[in-house]
Amino acid sequence: MNALSAMPIPIQVISENxxxxxxxxxxxxxxxxxxxGEKPFRAQQIFKWVHQRGITDFxxxxxxxxxxxxxLPSLCEIKAPEIAxxxxxxxxxxxxxxxxxxxxxxxxxxxPEKKRGTLCVSSQVGCALNxxxxxxxxxxxxxxxxxxxxxGQVWQAVMRLRAIGEDKECTVTNVVMMGMGEPLLNFxxxxxxxxxxxxxxAYALPRRRVTLSTSGIVPNIDRLSREADxxxxxxxxxxxxxxxNVLVPINKKYPISVLMDACRRFAMDKPGRxxxxxxxxxxGVNDKPEHARQLIKILQGVPCKVNLIPFNPFKGAxxxxxxxxxxxxxxxxxxxxxxxxxxRKTRGEDIDAACGQLVGQIIDRTKRNxxxxxxxxxxxxxxxESYA
Length: 388
What we know:
Blueprint: E1 3-5, E2 19-20, H1 26-35, H2 42-52, H3 66-71, E3 76-77, E4 82-88, E5 94-99, E6 105-112, E7 117-120, E8 124-126, H4 135-138, E9 141-144, H5 147-164, E10 174-177, H6 187-198, E11 210-214, H7 218-227, E12 231-235, H8 241-247, H9 256-269, E13 275-281, H10 289-298, E14 304-310, H11 324-336, E15 341-343, H12 368-386
Parallel strand pairs: 2-3, 7-10, 10-11, 11-12, 12-13, 13-14, 14-15
Antiparallel strand pairs: 1-4, 4-5, 5-6, 6-7, 8-9
């Protein structure tokens, strides 16, 4: 049954001049306490209270001195985006609409499975890129998310799922930076949030269970390799530059050969690690046998596995999902080419929570959404006239 409800989790009332402690990793938190004349070990105490126990009220942090508990509310805050709406899919997928500032909202999705629970986290309000098959792209772009707004998605999900039940299917075991936005165009906040996810005093997620997905911001793939110990996924979606320039326009700046070189460097820095190549299946566009053979060729020398993603439709989309038989032929060719190849199971489609369907509510600074809406209106007008 489809459930739709408002479920905000209470957060302290905040004033704008206070430091939000959710913006800080453990090192930053220690520096904050030193700056206010306290011992750095206070960071470990606060970290556990906030991220492991979900406590945001300083008065309840009983291993802090009474004087410090009384002092902290005037200096700092613990503020995550609030859950404005929750939807539950027939397949158990949950989607949360999270309220930010000035009318902006983002979406976060939790996908439960028998042996894991995957949380799909957003990194931007909208997306600065314009991939033509992605619903998020049609919403335009407003701004990058802060650390507290990124890690706050994890915090809210963990707390909400804990309130629902303690079984394994209500636990976040994996995080994928595959929600709204391009993570590598918001590098600093994303990198700090990744560190918090992996911190043993916070969420203690193993490196293989935290994955960042990028459309191919090459300089920051190299930087990610140096600064973060996480897994990498690449939104490839096309096996040649001519087609990828249309589907993923950032390819005009970082073409496939340059992107594949970056992937090889990443793999060299992370021995034993396979990069996931994401490939959306678009009927008659990129799903032909010759495309599969081209894909095998460009992936040579890249330790990777291929994840084929059936296209998830949205209003106004110019594409259709590839036929199952065409996806299977494509998959078999790539497998014979020596690459592990899987087909992603579509989850949460009935609540628009599937890959490429996240939209939120965005005050678009790019005017891209207005152009997209106008295009839909024009198309519908033409159709209505043709049937008159």
